[in-house]
Amino acid sequence: MNKIKIGAIGVGGIGGHQLRVASNNPDLFEIVAVCDNNVDIAKRVADEYKVDWHTDYKELCKRGDIDAVIVALPHYLYGEVVCYALECGLHVFKEKPFAKTLSDAKMMIDSAKKSGKQIFLAGQNKFSSAFIKAKEIADSGQIGDVFLTRGAIIYRWGGAIDGVWSWRGKEELSGGVAIIDAGWHILDMVHWLRGMPCAVYATTGTMKGAPKADYDVDDKAVLILEYPDGGIASIVSCFITLPGEMRVTLHGVNGCLDVNGGNLTFMIADKVQDVNIPKQEIDPITLQMRHFAESIQSGTESPVANTKRAYEVMQIVDAGYRSAKEKIRIEI
Is there a contact between 199 and 330 (Cβ–Cβ < 8 Å)? Predict the structure, then answer.
């Protein structure tokens, strides 16, 4: 098949990393152009790949010689930029979260449907061997009905501690952090393993975890999710402390599954079961990028990174913030 010709919008941070992943797969991708509103970054990255550079995303999207774009931007820009790219006939690989608001998410979905192009939402943990195996076991029914789910994402982001928040520390630009940004990773995984909840209760507290820094966003959050089958889940998200943790535990009536980083424990009653987790020969971020290419080439929307799933996680995020603000349980 023909290589997918790629442009990248926002290449100073994670967007630059995703671009590098694409360039490391020359059998699938050809880098054509990059865009960043910082001229120095745009020129530097363009020089690295020996491609054209832009500071206006519209110029890149209108070139006519690219098939898809990698988009990694401040949350408040996603609706505008993604919709424009889709209108220009481009597939979109975008960083999480799906959007800053539900209305932006709906706008992007409508634009994708109208254009016939795909939006692929990044979330690399779904390409981790341990999580894939956990999903397989959970779907098999071996642990029985899941009555309790626990999820946690905890790490220490130096930018927060040092006060280098930029747009992320302003709620009007980012929409938040602990739930919508850091928390997206764990909410995405719990949704993938457990499905859609019917109600959410959340709190973000009032004490600042980084008191010397200037920010007005959530730096920690606890969410309780209720499911139609009567099960519940607890989610903890915090990006300003240690020790780090990325964990999902499913407690079923017959046994439990615990995924902690790249480790998986599977128990039936109190007996640990042997689990064969395939060795991760290719890192999850690379597998994710290759899956994006396969989705475009096959013309089939990704089963794990599609807009339906992304919108449902966005609904959980939205309900979480409304609950924290109004101090009430929110039904979805």
Answer: yes
Measured CA to CA, the distance from residue 214 to residue 162 in angstroms comes to 10
Sheet of strand 220-226: strand arrangement: 271-273, 263-268, 255-260, 240-252, 146-156, 232-238, 220-226, 199-203, 330-331
Peptide bond connecting 26 to the previous residue in cis, omega within 30 degrees of 0: no
Phi, psi of 116 (to 5 degrees): 80, 10
Which positions of the chain have pLDDT values less than 50? none
pLDDT at position 211: 86
Please report the pLDDT score of residue 219 as a whole number: 97
Which amino acid does the sequence have at 102? L
Please count the other Cβ atoms lying within 10 Å of the Cβ belonging to residue 144.
13
User: Phi and psi at residue 209, in whole multiples of 5°?
Assistant: -85, -20
φ and ψ at 331, to 5 degrees? -85, 140
Q: Tell me the longest C-alpha to C-alpha distance in the chain.
A: 60
d(CA 78, CA 95): 9
Question: Residues with Cβ < 8 Å from 319, sequence gap 6 or more?
Answer: 199, 200, 202, 330, 332
Given this model, what pLDDT does residue 179 score? 98
Write down all domains in the chain, each with its CATH number in brackets. Answer: 4-121 (3.40.50.720), 126-280+312-331 (3.30.360.10)
Q: What is the spatial distance between Cα 31 and Cα 330, in angstroms, rounded to a whole number? A: 44
Q: Is the overall model pTM greater than 0.70, yes or no?
A: yes
Cβ atoms of 259 and 273 closer than 8 Å:
no
